[in-house]
Design brief:
With about 170 residues, the protein is mainly beta. The chain is about 0% helix and about 50% strand. It is built from no helices and 14 strands. The strands form 2 sheets. Strands 2-3-10-5-8-14-13-12-11 form a 9-stranded antiparallel β-sheet, with no helix packed on it. It has a 5-stranded antiparallel β-sheet with strand order 1-4-9-6-7, with no helix packed on it.
Length: about 170
């Protein structure tokens, strides 16, 4: 169930745009908030998972929130999501909901691969082509992954809430 048809709910001079690279840009501007929102029609109750990728420089973030009305955060309060791949669990209580991504920096951040996963295996994106040269270090629910590419941090925040983010 891919989410398409985002609405630009930016404030001030900020905006959203679909770029030629196949993903959406949230374009920040001074004293403005770049924001994209999508209403989702919910036909099932129980836990849902939203999967998405944040594109930008190490240290960049987008804020995810989910509400029962436009702009609300009653279903999922603000979640700061760093550059990388994310799965976030939430429970819309069987009602339609609004997904919103935003940031207020004076730069552009990308958003890609947004989907709602209902009754599907949890699938988290990765930049790695293979695992033969992958080195790891783990403590509790955090694992660092290193290879000939940029180092990433795999974080488990719950049974169905995971992030693989690029380390600055």
């Amino acid at each position: 169930n891919n989410i398409t048809g985002w609405t630009d709910v930016s404030a001030g001079a900020a905006s959203i745009a679909h770029n030629g690279l196949g993903y959406m840009d949230l374009i920040g501007a001074a004293s403005s908030t770049a924001a994209a929102e999508q209403q989702v029609v919910c036909t099932t109750s129980g836990e849902h998972v939203i999967r998405f990728s944040v594109i930008g420089a190490p240290g960049d973030t987008l804020t995810l929130s989910i509400g029962s009305t436009s702009g609300a955060t009653d279903i999922l309060a603000d979640q700061e999501c760093a550059v990388g791949y994310h799965c976030q669990a939430f429970n819309p209580l069987g009602a339609n909901f609004f997904v919103r991504f935003r940031h207020s920096a004076i730069k552009t951040r990308g958003l890609d691969d947004v989907a709602i996963l209902d009754n599907q295996p949890l699938e988290l994106g990765t930049p790695y082509d293979g695992v033969r040269l992958l080195k790891t270090a783990q403590t509790a629910d955090v694992m660092y992954l290193a290879s000939n590419q940029a180092t990433h941090k795999l974080s488990r925040r719950g049974h169905t809430s995971w992030s693989l983010t690029r380390v600055a």
